[in-house]
Amino acid sequence: MTLPFKVVAFDMDGTFLQDDKKYDYHRFNHVFHRLQDHGVQVVVASGNPAQILQQYFTEYTDQLTILAENGAQALERGRQVLASTLNRNKVHEAVAFLQQDLGIAPALSGSKQGYFPRNTSSEFMEHMGFYYPKHVIRDLLPLPADDIFQISMLVKDDAVPGIKTQLDTKFHGELDITPSGNDSIDITKPGINKGWGLTQLLQRWHLTADDLIAFGDGDNDLSMLQLAKYSYAMPNGNANVKATADYLAVADNNNGGVLATLEDYLERAEK
């Protein structure tokens, strides 16, 4: 018996990673090599920048694909094969609106590094500094001489709907505003999301959405869950994710739900 899919894509925070930002390395190693034996491609699909995702998988970067920046950048076996960045004029407008009108400090995710504004809170530095080990602190306007994948900001979950509405009203059709969980919002290029990025990869590999299994927990995972034939919500995922996905992972992120679900498939295929 063979596996019904040829590509595995999983989100990181709240899906593959435990709440402490760790994962069972030995268990993953075993599952990863079993998947390789079946010819399955593994895609780490996250809103996070490639620089932190590569640190999680240092021993695997030449064997898997990292789909970073909510689908805007893909590194296949360590080599960039996809990059779609924001219009610089729109980045300028968004940064000015966030700082001057909403009083929000944004982080810019550049192709070279992250960019943080001056005089930010310790909470901002702790949170964003984790995801951008390589970053500089500077005035964000004028913009740095770098291509920008997305703009991220810290917003408490209860304030997210109101902030999203203001941003949607201001930049309707020009920028996509997506809550990404963990008290944060991402601003991305319209139409560029995890589903789009995975579609480009599937075409590159001469595969289709029927060959894809995907796991997610937050709104920025909806596009890839809508795409995948085998779509799994995490038990800890939000209501939108559970309504979109066709299946529920066998355990939550703190109990290895992604790996446990894949192990079930592997055990059935290897009988």
UniProtKB/TrEMBL annotation:
This is HAD superfamily hydrolase. Pfam families: Hydrolase_3. One of its GO terms (molecular function) is magnesium ion binding. InterPro entries: Cof (IPR000150), HAD-like_sf (IPR036412), HAD-SF_hydro_IIB (IPR006379), HAD_sf (IPR023214). Transmembrane segments: none annotated. Coiled coil: none annotated. One of its GO terms (cellular component) is cytosol.
